[in-house]
Predict the structure.
Amino acid sequence: MEETLLKIEKVVIPAVEKRGVDLVDLEYIQEGGYLYVRVFIEKIDGDITLQDCGALSSDIDEAIDALIPHKFFLEVSSPGVERPLKKESDFIRFNGEKIKVSLKHKLNDNKNFEGIIEDFKNEVLYLKIKDMTLEIPFKEIKKANIVFDFSDI
C-alpha cells in the first residue's frame, strides 16, 4: 500500500499546486471491505469550498483510477477543525494552539499528551502542559492534531 500511496502522491501534488491549495494529508487505506483514497486540502488564506474539492477530485480521479486496479472511493475534503499536524511547518504555523500528541515511544511513562504549542525549533516540539514544558523530538511524534474547543461556540 505504501508504494501505491507514493504513486498517488505524484499525481496529487501537481494537481494541488495547480489549484493553489495546500495538501494537508493523503491516505490510502482499507476500512472494512473498502479501499479509500483520501485527500485533505486547505487554503492558508481562506476556506476550502465544495467547489475546490470537486474540482481537485475531477483533476485527479482518472489518473488515480489508472494506478489502482481495485474498486476504491476517492474523497477530497478539508482536514476539519481538528486538523492533523504532519509537517514541521504545521507546528510552527499553529504555535499557541492546543494540540493532542501521540508518541512512538513512552516519554515520562506516557505516549499521549495534550497541551499548548509553546515553540518548535531544531526539530523539537515544546509542549506546555500545565506548569511544565515538555520537549518532544519531532521524530518521536506518531500523530498530532489540533484540539478544537467546542465550548467556544
Q: What stands out?
A: The two ends are 39 Å apart (CA to CA). Strands lie at 22-31, 34-42, 72-77, 98-107, 110-121, 124-129, 132-137, 141-146. The domain at 88-152 is CATH 2.30.30.100 (SH3 type barrels.). Residues 14 and 111 are 36 Å apart (CA to CA).
